[in-house]
Amino acid sequence: MKNILLTILLTFGLFSSQAQEATADTLSEAEMMVMYQAYVDSVMQTLTYETGEIKLKNGIATITVPTDYKYLNGENSEMVLTELWGNPPSEGDAKSLGMLLPADSDLMSDSSYVINITYSEEGYVDDSDAKDINYDDLLASMREDLVEANAYREEMGYPTVSNISWASKPYYDGNQKKLYWAKDIAFDGSAVNTLNYNIRVLGRKGYLQMNVIGEMPVLPQVNANMDNILPAVNFTEGNRYADFNPDIDKVAAYGIGGLIAGKVLMKAGILAKLGLILAKFWKFIAFGVIALFAGIRKIFGGKEPENTETPVS
Question: What confidence tens digit (pLDDT) does each residue in 37-84 have?
Fold first, then answer.
């Protein structure tokens, strides 16, 4: 455990140049844990939570924070994703516009979840195929695509996916132009499956992505609150789906089926847009510290997985 804690502190740069010469023999586990917890506390103290109505991306959309939820703005959310959870810095469309999370949420707990919000301006998504999609066939197609996706993941040093199933079958509200679905993703070697819960709000020039970051046990909590979450986020006048102008607006290269399957994005290698990059404690795999996740679970009181690879959501 001492070596794991030392690696945590070195990974986050919590030692000065002189202190980095220290070894696990010169620092006790208690001293390392105090330093790491001080770092986490310092980041947590900088976070500012909001409620009420929030404008997203220069006013193209708004979110009315649901009862029993709170909101972190984009800057704070990026700090959580990178500084606390160790995700790579986001760029472009993958950059967070903010996060929704339960009011009593603990960001460092495995039993918590957040809903990360981004915006993709990839064009107007034609929803005419929605009524004809066979979701069982779509799932079968997604499983076939795992061969190509896993080859890319393995090349990049990410854990491969052994299976995908529906945790919640896709549902599209054609009146509100809102779509959601949830995948149960099994990563090779991981004892705990990953929840990949996706919400899309369609607009004139693209769509808002709301990706739940959490593990499978939080699924009942998310489902129980979906009726509060879905109505909370809407495009503003001029940016709504109904405001589409075929004479000047771009049309996306895919419809509802492609949006769910993510084939276009997968072939482009943009894993972050598929919701397959964002995770808690991701940096430790990026740094090749395979044993680290098990140590962190011990630190925060979670059960140690059978193997030490971090599940990705």
Answer: 788 888 888 899 999 999 999 999 999 999 999 999 999 999 888 777
User: Which stretches of the chain are DSSP H helices?
Assistant: 2-11, 29-44, 74-79, 135-144, 146-156, 219-229, 256-261, 263-268, 283-286, 292-299
CA–CA distance, 111 with 132 (Å, rounded to integer): 37
* Residues 230, 167 share a domain: yes
Question: In whole angstroms, how far apart are CA 9 and each of 171, 191, 289?
Answer: 44, 26, 12
Chain centre distance of CA 254? 22
The 10s digit of each residue's pLDDT in 137-162 is 999 988 888 888 788 777 777 678 88
Sheet holding 61-64, edge to edge: 53-56, 61-64, 233-235
User: Is 136 found in the same domain as 33?
Assistant: no
CA distances from 88 to 42, 76, 78, 285, 309 (A): 20, 15, 10, 11, 17
33 and 165, same domain (yes or no):
no
Tokens 């599940």 correspond to 311
| Cα Rg of the chain (Å, integer) | 20
User: What domain count does the chain have?
Assistant: 2
CB–CB of 308/292 below 8 Å?
A: yes
- Pair 58, 146 in one domain: yes
Task: Return the ∠ at Cα 49 (arms to 44 and 55), rounded to 5°.
Answer: 135
